[in-house]
Write a structure and sequence with these properties.
- The protein is built from 5 helices and no strands.
- It is mainly alpha-helical and about 140 residues long.
- α2 (about 15-40) runs antiparallel to α3.
Amino acid sequence: MMNAYLENMVLTANPVMQVILLYEKAIACLEEAREIMEKGLQDSDSIKSKYESLGRATEILTVLKATLNMEQGGEIAKNLSEIYQALLNDLVRITVEGDDPETIRKMVKVLKELKESWEEVERKVYGKPQEATPAV
C-alpha cells in the first residue's frame, strides 16, 4: 500500500519535486549506512543493510548525474556534475576501504544543502511546495 502511494507521488510530482524526492531518499540511505557504521554492527544483516543503503545512494547519485542537461544547464549543470562525481567517488572509496561515518556525515550535509536549493526552486517555479513525505 505504502509503495503504491509513494510510486504515485513520484510519478505525479513535477520534475523539480522528483529531484527533491531523490535527494531525500539518498540522504535517508546514507544516514542508515552511517548509523550502522557508528554502532559498529557486524552481523550479516547489518552489513547487508549497510551495503544495500550505500548501493541505493550510489544509484540515485548516478541517476541525478546522468539526467543533467549539460547544454541547457550550463555552469550549474557542470557544477552539479562535479559534486555528484565527488560524492560517487566517496561512496566507492568507502565501499572499498571500509567504514567512514564522518565522510558520510559530510556527504549528507552537501545533499541537504542541494535539496534546500531545489526546494527554493520549487517554491519559485511552482508556488507552494508540494508536501513531501519522509523517504522510506
